[in-house]
Design brief:
By secondary structure, the protein is of the alpha+beta class. It is built from 1 helix and 2 strands.
């Protein structure tokens, strides 16, 4: 006995960034490079805030 299965495909069934890597998207969006460029602030209520030290250091 054979069972046939049909899959429905929608038009939005693809990756929105198919040809770009994450690094290329960060460069394009002018994201701040947080690698070795952050300060951690303790808010004393169980939360922390991670802030960049230099806002002009962007991904290249």
């Amino acid at each position: 006995m054979a069972i046939k299965i049909k899959f429905k495909k929608s038009k939005n069934d693809h990756n929105p960034f198919p040809l770009e890597t994450l690094h290329e998207r960060l460069i394009k969006d002018k994201a701040i490079d947080m690698r070795d460029n952050f300060a951690i602030e303790n808010l004393d209520d169980g939360y922390i805030v991670v802030r960049p030290i230099d806002f002009n250091k962007l991904y290249k």
